[in-house]
Write a structure and sequence with these properties.
Elements: E1 4-11, H1 36-50, E2 55-58, H2 60-65, H3 67-75, E3 79-82, H4 95-113, E4 119-120, H5 129-137, E5 142-146, E6 161-166, E7 169-172, E8 177-180, E9 183-186, E10 189-192, H6 197-201, H7 204-214, E11 221-225, H8 243-250, H9 256-269, E12 273-275, H10 277-291
Parallel strand pairs: 1-2, 1-11, 1-12, 2-3, 4-5, 5-8
Antiparallel strand pairs: 6-7, 7-8, 9-10
Length: about 290
């Protein structure tokens, strides 16, 4: 396959992230200023400038309040996928609560964009094997919740990976497909290189080098970001918050937009194409089906 970058964005607002949950619990969200359009429109501007497509894992809570934004994302040719309804970590929900959460989000998003929603990503990557099975029972084709950073306090652990379609892309035992977030391996070290806060915290050239190193044997480069990371003027929370949480959330927000621009330029110069996860999966799966 061609050299490919899979850009993805988790569409949630600044006050919905887990690092700020102690100060902004869900019952307070209606009182917070919505800024999701600011960051998302900046993302769309960058993508349009370079004529590249991406996947937007969209929160149902957001889609209900700014449906026009979600329709605009889809109208510009990007893939709409699901981030669930409530941005509660799945491992904190019962199986049935989780089922209803993702069922509601899928139906809402499909109604908004008039197309199937095939992908899902768990808030904070906090999912386990039991809930992953529910993702596919509820009609999703693929998941992108496997983030193998071993020391992170929220990321879930997944197993049951079957045939590898491409590096970090697996057909799962029991059905469905998994896009894993990549790690760059330097000897015994496994270094996060998939995006999020790491994209802002590492120097730009270092992150791009790690992303290239994480790409194994012709597999895709996977990058995840959030629209709130493109909004450096978002409110600063008042109140007690662990210093590490405050640092991870606010550090280098002003650098995210130019770094994404440079990331796209750098990989484009190296001959990489950009597409959505759904389109990439179609390229992998359809030839295999034809061969059978």
């Amino acid at each position: 396959m061609r050299q490919t970058v899979l850009l993805s964005f988790d569409v949630e607002d600044w006050f919905q992230v887990e690092n700020l949950r102690s100060l902004h619990p869900p019952d307070s969200w209606e009182a917070q200023p919505l800024r999701i359009e600011i960051g998302t429109r900046r993302v769309l501007e960058i993508l349009n400038r370079h004529q590249v497509k991406a996947t937007f894992f969209t929160l149902g809570w957001i889609a209900r309040r700014v449906p026009r934004l979600i329709r605009d994302i889809a109208a510009e040719g990007h893939e709409i996928a699901s981030h669930g309804s409530s941005h509660v970590m799945p491992i904190e929900q019962s199986i049935e609560q989780f089922r209803l959460d993702i069922r509601e989000a899928k139906a809402l998003l499909e109604d908004l964009v008039g197309a199937p929603v095939r992908g899902y990503r768990a808030p904070s990557f906090a999912i386990d094997d039991a809930r992953l099975r529910v993702v596919f029972e509820e009609g999703h084709l693929y998941d992108s919740s496997h983030n193998p950073v071993a020391l992170h306090d929220r990321y879930g652990k997944l197993g049951g990976f079957g045939r590898e379609l491409a590096p970090d892309v697996h057909e799962l035992i029991g059905g469905g497909y998994e896009f894993s977030i990549p790690l760059a391996r330097l000897g015994p070290l496994a270094i996060p290189a998939g995006g999020g806060g790491y994209f802002r915290l590492y120097p730009g050239p270092l992150f791009r080098a790690l992303a290239r190193r994480a790409r194994r044997n012709g597999g895709p480069v996977v990058l995840y970001l959030h629209p709130w990371e493109f909004d450096p003027d978002q409110p600063r929370v008042e109140g007690e918050l662990p210093a590490s949480y405050r640092f991870r959330h606010y550090q280098n927000l002003g650098r995210t937009s130019p770094r994404l621009d440079q990331f796209i330029r750098s990989f484009s110069r190296r001959g990489f194409g950009f597409t959505s996860m759904g389109a990439y999966l179609d390229e992998l799966v359809e030839p295999a089906r034809v061969a059978v």
